[in-house]
Amino acid sequence: MMTYTPLRVTLMLALLFIAASFLGGTAVWSMLGFSDDLTIEGDAQIVRTAPVDVGGGWEAYGGDKGGNRYSAATQINIDNVDQLSIAWIHHSGALDGKSDADRSKSALQTTPILVEGSLVFCTQFNEVIAVDPGSGAEKWRYDPKVPTASNPANQYTCRGVSYWKDGAAEADAKCATRLFTGTVDARLIALDAKTGEPCEEFGENGTQRIQPSITLRWPGEFQITSAPAIIGDTVVTGTSIGDNLRTDAPKGTVFAFDTRTGAIKWTFDPLSGSPDIRGGHSNVWSTIAVDEERKLVIIPTSSPSPDYYGGNRVGDNLYANSVVALNGDDGTVAWHFQTVHHDVWDYDLPAQPGLYQVWREGKAHDVVAQVTKTGLLFVLDRETGKPFLPIEERAVPQGAEKGEVLSPTQPFPVNTPAIVPDRVDPSDAFGITFWDRWACKAQLESLRAEGLFTPPTIQGTLSLPFTGGGANWGSAAFDPNRNLLVVNMNNVGQYMRLQPSTTESAKANKISDDDEFAPMEGAPYGMSRAMLLSPLGLPCTPPPWGILAGIDLDSGKIVWRQALGTTEDVAPGGLALKLGTPALGGPIVTAGGLVFIGATSDHYLRAFNVVTGNELWKGRLPAGGQATPMSYVWKGRQYVVIAAGGASNMGSKLGDNIVAFALPE
Fold first, then answer.
1. Catalytic residue of the set 64, 102, 346, 602
2. Per-residue exposure over 224-243, b if at least 16 CB sit within 10 Å of its own CB, e if not
3. d(Cα 286, Cα 270) in Å, to the nearest integer?
4. By percentage, how much of the chain surpasses pLDDT 90?
5. For a designed S-S bond to 110, which of 32, 121, 354, 619 qualifies (C-beta 3.0 to 4.6 A apart)?
6. Is the peptide bond before 470 cis (omega within 30 degrees of 0)?
7. Which residues contact 448 (CB under 8 A, 6 or more apart)?
């Protein structure tokens, strides 16, 4: 996953501040050429009430195992949401005693779950903590003592823990209910859900270590970042692997273990569909979805390695870049759908597949909705994997560098246009002065840019959306009453360039010394990439740079779209221009008619009207809210909770906070 470069905005925003002083905030917005109202006309009609098994609690990272991210609670609603205030804050102390180097590689991305009368979550450094849902008072904690100074490829982070109930155990037996969590050093750990004590019979004293297929180059090349999946008496996990170092990378194997003993039940290699390709990994680093009724484990797979050259892996590279439904009993493939053929753009599937029930002409349809880094939305029939909303193959740009063999076509949804753009005319380059706009225009003109799937080149290629998305691990939420999927996406571009695989020659061919370089060992090219920024530090692509959108899954129509986030926490004087900001984290939906989301570069949790997309409220956070919130009812009071600990790769303020909002008692 591409990391964010913190926006160097001091001079630019000082100029905007001067303009705002004379013209006012709305005038500044108009001066930049953007409407303050980004709503697209449409209706999200109520067609039914939510299924009884959706939204009743928050026992899984995504609200439920299918990732609906929906709460049936209605105490907080569109009429009273403006009365929300902080009910309690828990401080984990996770950053205490950590070195500056370790802090600078950390991100608090956890979403708590409500189980066994406790709110349970994990910290940046994999501690598991249980607190009282009504007060935030700590009940217990477990510290796996993960190694620091390991330089994890994908930060010190833990997005969540998972819950399992042993139907064969006595209710008061130790480990009759269990929590499963993964760690930065690729351990899968089982804990008693009531006490946090390790379940000794699982693996070795409660721990099963995931072994990489080959020797690691450094300890942080291989880790677990997302909550494991639970299906029956099986716990399933993928791994997160460092990208672009080498062609012969560790395999991205998915592992399934017995929830009681830790014994391996089955494994699945996402590149098993192309067994003859050389080396490389395609892994599952994001969250897995589970369909208990069909006994399916539905995984989102990544691109093979290296990300930007595929001459050693000719063909479509099945089952990379695919939604794959596996049989939960043995790991065999039930069906698959590939969203990118022969990926050379780092367009992993970054989000949990959404297992939703969509109503059409009075009939319920079980679907899988997959949001993507490319800004596209694919909706599939859950039984067969065939398109529920139509998808077609379209010709895409060709003319790759020597040795590369591109796919001539790529799949595109027919009904839903790209939620964020995939191209920009250089004449539309963003800038607040002639100087920085000219610099951005020159950068854009220097790059090959023919829209989505323009191949990587020695000349340099525009990647829009950039490799952080579009969508990312925050995934989507679903309002089952309205057939409405809600997702946030980033709208910024980057350059990527192929070049000889030596560090010295690469330095001479980078736009900036701060840009990322990767050698892609085993390929004939190295790679450099970075966000396209003006000399003043703002994206060269026009705002809004962060978008929240609602899509009707019956028709595929985009119902509304709004800018997400302001410049308040990156601007001198706190100037809050509604330009939208890049965001990490996702939304939730409640039956009170609300969408809640943090994620942005400014430190707020926001509430939007789910029907119109209009912002109704925002609550200040003590640090960056780069996480997905959740909601629950405890002793008659509804809470909305979000982790506010920032993300080092976004440059947001770091912290150790779990923040709960509620209405006045």
1. 346
2. bbbbbbbbebbbbbbbbbbb
3. 14
4. 83
5. 121
6. yes
7. 454, 455, 457, 459, 460, 461, 462
